[in-house]
Amino acid sequence: MSVGHVTMSTEHEVALRPSALAMVWPGVGKKHEPVAVPGIALAPGEVLVSVELATVCPRDAQYASGARLLRGPVVLGHEAVGRVVALAGPVRAAGGRRLSVGSRVVWSATASCGRCGRCRHGMSQRCVSLHRYGHERVARDWQLGGAFATHVQLRKGTTIVLVPDNVPAEVLAPIACAGAAAAAIVEAAEREAPLAKRTVHIAGTSARALTAAAMAADAGARVLLTETDSERRELARRFGAVAVVDSQQIGSDGLGTEGAHSIMPQGEQDAAAPRHLVRAVDFVLKTWRELPYDEFVGEVMGLEGVDDALRLAASEPRARVGLRNERIDIV
Ligand SMILES: [Zn+2]
Ligand SMILES: [Zn+2]
């Protein structure tokens, strides 16, 4: 990954040579357009990161196909790992360490104000002035608001977590959404009752489901995971699911799901809170050598493949397609 040349004036005007490149999604049925961003102005507390690898969340594919409503133009993408290339003033990572140019980081899918009533009551994911990466229309002051780009401008109020250099990008990129959502699921289950010795049911083998299975198993739960595909069942076993049944055979094999409490949320789910991202990163860093997180990511393409990546993700939502930051020419 080449970061290129970055210069910053005292007013936090950042000039990028070569220009940053954002893959702008105009709307349903239209191809992404690469848009050059030669410079941006960082507000105090903001950070510019160079994306190393972004992954396609099923939600991105739903937006692109029109299955879920979103108005373009938007730079999609809210799961990535990257490196800090510029900061406006001192900015701290979660846990208090100062970020510096070159820091390798993952960041939350949302940025919240930290001051409103909802933020102060631990519900920053519902902040009244919430910013969501990969969801907002391209604006003059936020052209680099999604991960399907060479760079992302991190707004103040983003939870930024330092990650070590030796962990593969495929392991780290999905944490911002899938990992944090898994931590939120497990936290909600723990609030009902401690997980040790409980039997819990998890449906499917999305990255979110498998990470939640691993976390619940680590907390001492017996995880019953249902999945129709035999290869995916094998993957689930490697994430610590102690009983993995074909959901079409529930009840006929003696395992059943009776008595197993489903911990997967029904329907819409709130975005995760900062503590969930921090917990997910901690857990993945503790377990990545044993658990095959890298297998979440299937095919990896360059940014110019974003339309293909979204189509592929729509047809196979369980495997995350990766988008690597490579320079492409604008035609
Ligand atoms: Zn997502
Ligand atoms: Zn707020």
From TrEMBL:
GO terms for molecular function: alcohol dehydrogenase (NAD+) activity; zinc ion binding. Residues 44-164 form the Alcohol dehydrogenase-like N-terminal domain. PROSITE patterns: ADH_ZINC. SUPFAM superfamilies: GroES-like (SSF50129), NAD(P)-binding Rossmann-fold domains (SSF51735). It comes from the Bacteria. Its EC number is 1.1.1.1. The keyword Electron transport does not apply. Keywords: Metal-binding, NAD, Oxidoreductase, Zinc. Its cofactor is Zn(2+). It is an enzyme of class 1 (oxidoreductase). GO terms for cellular component: cytoplasm. Belongs to the zinc-containing alcohol dehydrogenase family. This is alcohol dehydrogenase.
